[in-house]
Amino acid sequence: MQSIAHSSQTGHATNIITGLSVGLESTGLPVIVISIAIISAYYLGEATGIADANGKLVAGLYATAVATMGMFASGVYVLSMSGFGPIADNAGGIAEMSNLNSNVRTATDKLDAAGNTTAAIGKGFAIGSACLVSLSLFGAYIVRVEEASDSSNFVVNVLDPLTFSGILVGAMIPYAFSALTMGAVGEAA
Question: What distance in Å separates the CA atoms of residue 165 and residue 36, rounded to the nearest whole number?
């Protein structure tokens, strides 16, 4: 964030470049954390040794679904916290339109910054939860297809946590490289 403030002093173009760079860079850590959560939950579930009638280990997908529900358990708190952002933003707007003292606007600007942060956290939480839910729903679909077709031969196994995490990390790499490139351009400018 300090880099955005610093680049704001040199002009609009560098501010936009640095802001985009920081935004793109911020995709890296959440993707890595969610990938680690998926892999950990899956392999901890498989470590239980629970198998179906054919001897196929089945607890990995179940453990991933349980991890998803664990993430959703704090959903109410996170979503209610993200509601603080618009409230603080409106308070700042009302203070500005009411021509209140500048110290009131300074206080509401700090609240607005905190509100923007909580809104961003809420959005990140929602995206992470959606990622875990998509894995669980796809797993349920595959199980039903296997039951209906009496076959378990699929070409792409997205249920493999390493494959799924690889998809996530692979999708994140262009954002990370774009962030690095844009950050370098912003510094050079």
Answer: 8
55: region left, alpha or beta (phi > 0 left; psi from -120 to 50 alpha): left
**The domain containing residue 8 runs over which residues?**
2-188
Least confident stretch, 87-96, 102-111, 155-164:
155-164
Give me the pLDDT at residue 92, please. 78
Q: Which of 40, 59, 64, 41 is nearest to 49 (CA)?
A: 59
The percent of residues in the chain predicted with pLDDT above 90, rounded, is 3
Total structural domains in the chain? 1
Spatial CB neighbours of 97, under 8 Å, sequence gap ≥ 6: none
| Alpha carbons 145 and 155: distance in angstroms, whole number | 14
| Closest to 39 (Cα-Cα) out of 49, 47, 29 | 47
In terms of C-beta density within 10 A (0-12 exposed, 13-18 middle, 19 or more buried), how is residue 98 classed? exposed
* 13 CB neighbour count, 10 Å cutoff: 12
